[in-house]
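Obj: model holo form, ligand = zinc ion.
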Amino acid sequence: MKREKELKTVAFMIGKYCRGVHKRKRGELCEECEELLSYAELRLSKCPFKDEKNFCSNCKIHCYQPEKRDMIKRVMRYSGPRMIFSHPILSIVHLIETKREKKKLDKEAK
Ligand SMILES: [Zn+2]
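Output (holo structure tokens):
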């Protein structure tokens, strides 16, 4: 999966989380979420794996600061299951690719 696509997914998930949890309007982000999104963008743009990179959730490097990682995890946990309904294709593709990649990584580790 290309970074661009991952970033789009992340932005979508943060937006959903912010609307649901922070009660912001569609297209708006509170300061906290805005910061998280730009942080995610920065991390993705600096990722050493570039285009052949793993999903951040599978990545061995774990370049997120613990604080930000906790928050992105909360966002994923909130938005992930809800994406099945509003963005079925995006979330299913994400699910399949994450699983496939994890299998590949497990194989390589052996
Ligand atoms: Zn927010």
